[in-house]
Structure formats: C-alpha cells, structure tokens
C-alpha cells in the first residue's frame, strides 16, 4: 500500500485532504461494505478535523454506538503517515487494549474493509510482563514444581546465553490466562525490580516487546498508566542514557479520557519498601568500604525497620480501598527525620567512597539513585499539604506510597503544552452539560469540545429498575434479590461492584446457590481479564462479576442482557479522594463525590446497549438511592432520554 490511501497534493493542507478522505469513508466506502454509518459519527469526524489542523486538545464526548473509535483511528493513522511518527492510542486499561486489537476489533475492521495495512503494535504496562528473576525465585520456593512447567515453556533463547540471532516478544499476561491475580503477582514485573542490574534484562519479554512496538509506523496502543509513566520518566531516562518508554509521536488519543487523572496520579507516585532498601544498600557491604560507612548502613537498615513499624502503627484500613490511611503526628515525623538524616550521612560518605574507586560504579549509581528517590519522597512529609500518602500490605510486604498533589502541574507542563493534537474520547466527559469537572481535574485550561448523543432508541431497548428494600438493603437482602433478578434474565449479566471487598464477599457467600437458567459465574481476578471476557461472551448464560469493567467493555448481543450495579460507584474514603475533598471544602460531596459517581454510573449503564438491536435490563441495587433524594434525582437525570427509573418492592421485579 502507498503512504496515503488517497491521492495527496503537497500544495494543499494535509489535514483538509485527510478529512475529505474520511468523509468518503463514511459516506461511501463503509456503507458499500455493509456498515451503518450514523450522522453522529460524521459530525465527530468534522470536529476532529479542527483539532488535528490546529494541533489542539479536544474533549470529544460521543455517545455509545456513534462509532467514535473508527473516527479517531482514521485520523490518528493518517496523521501518523503524514508526520512519519506513530500516533499513540492510550486506553484506560489492558482489557480495552485487547478489545481494540482483537480479530473482530475496530483496527481489524478498517484494515479488512478499506484495504488498509495498519501497523498497530501494543505497548503494555511493565507489570503485564513476566519477570525472569521473580520466576526463578518462585521456582526455588516450596511450590516450585508448579512454576517449573511455566519456566520450561519459555522460548529457547531465554535459556541460552549465546548471542541472540532470533527472538520474539513473550511473557505477556494474556499468555497465562490460567493464573489468577495473586499467582501472577508472584512472577510479574513490579516497581521494586532492579532492571538496571538484572543479568537477564536482554532476554526479558518486557525489553523485547519495547523494541518491537517502538518500530511501529502507524499506531502504538498502550494504557493510560503506561503513557503517564512515559511522561513522568522521560527526562530521567534521557539523563541516564536510556530511550524514553515511547518514541516521538504525532498525536495522542486518550480513550475513556476522563480516567487520565487516576493514571497520572499513579505514575507520579514514589513507592518505598523496607526489604528493597535493605537489599540494595547491603550490596555496598560486599565491597571494600570504610567502617564508618558500614556502620551507617547498618543503622539505616535498623531505622528503616523502625520507620515501617511506626507507619503500620499509624495506619488504618479504609473500607472499599486497598489503601490504608496514615495518621501523621510528631512521633512519626521524628522517625522520618531520623531516617533521612542517616541517608544524608550515607550520601556524603558515598561521595568520598567513590573517589577511592573501591566500589562498582554501576552498583554505586543504582544505590545513589534509590537513596535520592527516598529523600525526595520523604522530604514531602515536611509539607503535608503537598503530599498524599498511604500504606499497602502487611509486615515485610508493607509498601509506603507517596504521591505529590501537583498532578495538574505535571499534566499542564508535559502533556497539554505539547504542540500536537490531543483527543480525549469518551461517552461521558461532561456532567450536567459542562466539561469543567474533567477539565479542572486534569488542569486543562484551553480546549475544544463537543458532545453528540447516542443514536439508540433507549426508551424501547432499556429498562432500569431500582428495588426498594424491606430490610434496609443488607448484604443478604441484596444477594437474594440479585439471584432472583439473574434468574429472570437467565444469567447473561455483568455485575459491577464498586470495590474488591464486596466482590470477594459476594463470591464467598454465593456458594452453591442454584440459579435457574444461568451458567458459570466468572470473577475478575480469577484469571487474565481478556480471557474471562471472552469466556463470558462465548457462554451466553454465564455471569461476569467485575470491579474494573465500568468502562469500555463491548459485548453486543444476548450474552450481555443485564447490567447489575451492586452499589452506586462513589469514590472511596481513601487518602487520594480525601485530598480532593479538602480542596473542594465548600461542597465536597457536590464537587467531588457526586460528579465522580455519575460519570462512572453512566459508563456502567453504557455497557448494556451496544447495537440497535440489543435489549436488556439495568438493575440498581443501591441503598443510597432511597436514602438521599438528591442522589436519586441526579441518577434519574443522567438516564438516557425516555428511560425512567422503575421503583418497587424487590419481589415486584422477579417476573416479567
């Protein structure tokens, strides 16, 4: 195929010619291939033309079924050909990446029906790859035989120490669908892996995949998390003589763009773990170092233990979140200060030690960078108004996470300042007709925007019910009601939970309940997510229980005929959202909790109707709907036009 799918005239602006071709695609080429092209889709195409022509940021709110993915793919791929730089398509999570590139996905559809050869490659997050060092550790553990088989299935070149003549990417999470999340966490890459000092890094699946996607001519498809990791580490990697995670690119599309803030916060975090610190600084003791430095290292290791014990004593569990809230007081700050003072002394001694050339330069640099990171992170404790912190895990696995509050500033400086088209695409970017909630949360000052509705006849295709509770909406009452409603639709349901805890409890208490007409129950976390989704879609009467599938899941047809919302998805009371509430102290519920919930609820409801022939049920098993009139009115307001909220006693909804 030639560089462009149309005759390009260099004397005329490229984007205008690209837009003309996109018009031909939607008016002529796709209808000839049997596609139903909608007015909303064509409207979006003309809106994106301006963003690409003027290299601006655009908030593109297009309802379910408008075919927005096809629109942004055509512009992104065409503009990539023009600039000779790939476009980045950043999805909210890994499951959405897989849906985009699956054999029946939108990339494949364009290639097949337009005769395009689109070079689309995946840049998955690092934790989606197998870590050879962690696998080796698992193989030597008490259940080592269980991991030996996985090790033996690795490509031959992984086991060879000869020069690589041929290799291919491997170790992707999706290649191990039988591992649940807990098992995968034992062998996947995590942020505490010291890749710079890893002797197996040149045979690592993560490293090889990076070399592969960097050569893409058209599209690199990654997650929001990975894109923000690229932004956050860009300067540091260049200073260290490394390539940035992503190559230079021509434009960025943030699919489900309203979720970028969460990814930005995640990327900007510092993570501290006592075991990692101890392992790193202990390396220095293996060399010929002076006694003073050796004593300081021992003292720092002891103080690190004391600090993490103090953190555990000052933390408390938060319902609905994995994050433990840390209570700061003078005694905790004193332990932080003591640890930092010891690190400062070690840094000073390392400068002197480096001049004696008794330590390995490479190992010394790694230790120095790790200590510098700890100093930056703990330095924020002196200014509690500038940090958000929490504790994960227990005992030796405890991890201190510290996040600067300055997410907006980083996005403003490193994302929105770029002279390139930035497209934020989603069915839910506005609240009450305004884009300010999303724009303000991201620090977005200047942007284009538009909103176009879904073409579906929701009043005919969707029913929304909300049972009233006779016993206050207890877990037991909700479970019994859920089972009756699932029997009504014969399974075919997606149950969305707001937190892992409630999903786990539902799974544990469901036990051997008989459910007439329903097949298998699938639970997020029991296997690789795209594999679970595929099984759910294939087995029509099955039920999929999930926490992370509020956005992007696209399963047309009868396999998904019922979306059950276990509880309204308000943000948790964890340190991240507590900080946002404090910033909006005048009306935290109205400015933080309610808009967040309504955006997420609209997304969840949007999983049901995916084509013009779909029909189904949305059931809201929420106590809050009947406890707060303001919440109920807000929920009714965001329902699709013509769809009302049907209320009644929970028995009223069993038949029909």
Automatic annotation (TrEMBL):
Helicase ATP-binding domain mapped to chain residues: 27-305
Example GO biological process: nucleobase-containing compound metabolic process
Top enzyme category: hydrolase
PROSITE patterns in the record: HELICASE_ATP_BIND_2 (PS51193)
Single annotated GO MF: hydrolase activity, acting on acid anhydrides, in phosphorus-containing anhydrides
Cited InterPro entries: ATP-dep_Helicase_C, DinG/Rad3-like, Helic_SF1/SF2_ATP-bd_DinG/Rad3, P-loop_NTPase
Protein name: ATP-dependent DNA helicase
Organismal lineage: Bacteria, Bacillati, Bacillota, Bacilli, Bacillales
Domain of life: Bacteria
